[in-house]
Design a protein that fits this description.
The protein is of the alpha/beta class. It is built from ten helices and nine strands. Helix 4 packs across helix 7, helix 5 packs across helix 6 and helix 6 packs across helix 9. The termini are far apart.
Amino acid sequence: MKLRLFLILAALLASSVVAQAQAQALDVRTSDHGQTSFFETVYVRPGQIVDGDINVIAGDAEIAGVVRGDCNAIFGKCEIVDDGEVLGRVNSVTNDGVRALLPWVARHDFASPFAEQDRRLFLKLASSAIVVLVFLLFPLRTRLALDRVERHPALATATGAAAAIALVPIAIVLLVSVVGIPLIALEIAGVVVGVWLGTAAIALVVGRRLCELVMPASTPSPLVALILGLVVVSAAEIVPVVGWAVSALVWLAGLGAAILSFVRAAHIDAAVHRAPIAGPPMSRRF
């Protein structure tokens, strides 16, 4: 009886060891996609392979496995532990770094003579953070908008201006129809998200061009180019006299690029090529 009980326990132990070994082998073979998390710590366990980027906002990232993309931590840190490895770039924007670059944020002294400038800078910082968040949530759509604003900047600006003009008539029609009143909020939300998405695309263009001038031999990551472009665009927008014009141009071109990102590039190119550049062709008489 004791021998039979011992054999049963040994069989159970052997089966558990085999199952654990199979699970570990499965973890090594498993390849997860990228991940974007908010207000939490992301842990890549040993043996795990992430085939994409790790994006963490207001949290930390601990890498004990392998990340084949970039590790981006905003208001947090990206830490490689044990035998972890990040094949891409490691980008961390910590709270201490933000306070060092913008000490007025830590003081919160809005009663000073520069309270208005501080308030505008704080709003620009918050807006830039939202733009970065939109870029991390919709990277593919941002790349499409980037392509549209690079290839057809005038068309993107004209599309954004037309959308801004049509915003009020469409809202009035929805209001009169009564049934479409709930769609007004959806329309406004779509325009706001489109502006943020287009602003990210324009900031990427500016950041890339600036990096090409300063560091022509290196290729920056999209997140670094985005943050650098946002710094340049925000600095231009807070200039006292021409800042409003820069903001209007960025909003219109960004909104137009976001709208054009839902249209196929081949259709846009065909429409642009079909548009007459000059007058009708002149005929010669003999």
